[in-house]
Amino acid sequence: MLKEEMYRDIESRSEELFAMADDLFDHPELGLEEYHALDVLTGWLVREGFEVERGVAGVETSFRAVYRQGEGGPNIGLLCEYDALPGMGHACGHHLQGPSILAAAKALKDAPIEGNYTVTVYGTPAEESVSGKIRMIQNGCTFEELSVAFMMHGGPATQVDVKSLANSKFLVIYHGVSAHAALRPEKGRSALDGLLLAFQGIEFLREHVNSDVKIHYTVTSCGGTPANVVPALAEASLYARSYNRAYLDTVVERLKKVFQGAAMMTETEVEIIEEKRVDNKIPVLSLNDLVMKQAEEIGAPRIRPAREKTGSTDFGNVMRRVPGTCARIAFVGEGAAAHSQEYLDAGKTQEAHDAILYGAKILAGAALELIEDPELLERVQKEFAEKLEKENQEGK
Prior knowledge:
Blueprint: H1 2-12, H2 14-26, H3 35-47, E1 51-54, E2 63-69, E3 75-80, H4 97-110, E4 117-123, H5 132-138, E5 148-155, E6 161-164, E7 166-175, E8 179-180, H6 191-205, E9 214-221, E10 229-230, E11 233-242, H7 245-266, E12 269-278, H8 285-297, E13 307-310, H9 315-319, E14 324-330, H10 341-345, H11 350-372, H12 374-394
Parallel strand pairs: 3-4, 3-5, 5-14, 6-13
Antiparallel strand pairs: 1-2, 2-4, 7-11, 7-12, 8-10, 9-11
Helix pairs in contact: 1-4, 1-11, 2-4, 4-11, 6-7, 8-11, 11-12
């Protein structure tokens, strides 16, 4: 069987893949500083015959690696992250992704698959900080040449996700006029009053939005003035989330009116700066089923039902453009929290190494079925288009 041949190819590289993952684990790099990881991953891809471009869309530590067999056919996208966490290294498990994705890509490249197809590996940095995929999209790399987009991620169980939260992050700055609060308060225009009034408006808004909407805010600065001085500057950080990007956009417009209304009432001025715009995933259940079918076939550890609702990820911005899914592979104990010491302690264990191989086999097997069965790929893409259209309609 062709799948078995690919699995043997992946297993034959196990020691090389484990060493690569351990190297990345031992050299954790923060977002947009992943130069060692970039060299390790792209160097391997060049040696294995992929066409490699570094610094895609002006993001210096990103890359694209491509293998083409003939002209046309499906383009299988395989995405990996490799940034670490401040002060916690690879407690995110990102060091496992690159080796696993590279092994899947190499197996697809070398297998005697009939027909035309393309394998595209994207290195997407800074997921934990500035959301590298979003920055790449903003700079013109839309990922839309892909027929499908796959990722793998270590976790407490082997499973897939359904919904994720869209997220808009804002920096809100009120500008007022400083004055002595005891002697000439009438001369002042309190930026802090504007901000506090906006917060009160948000509390009234909560009653009139869908139940899945989450709004969080905090004061990050109020000018540092003493209590008897009217503050001329006040800043806040705000997050607004929903499982529907289209609906969240309507909530964001209402939030802007709240900010602007508070500025009018306090005769201050307000800046509303959107710092990040994360989309929710469009779940393609047929693609999820295909991934879990592979997991069952190879006996992956701790297979569990899909996570119905998750937090925010910049992979959502890709999954609103092309059908995609992320295979989560068990390597830590059930119940372990992401970004925890437990993840860090497990980073170089046998379970972590095994997750690399399981992830590679699962994604290579799923990709092979899509290449060999055009009707299956067509169903996946049709489901994606229908789900996207339905969500956009529901969000209006």
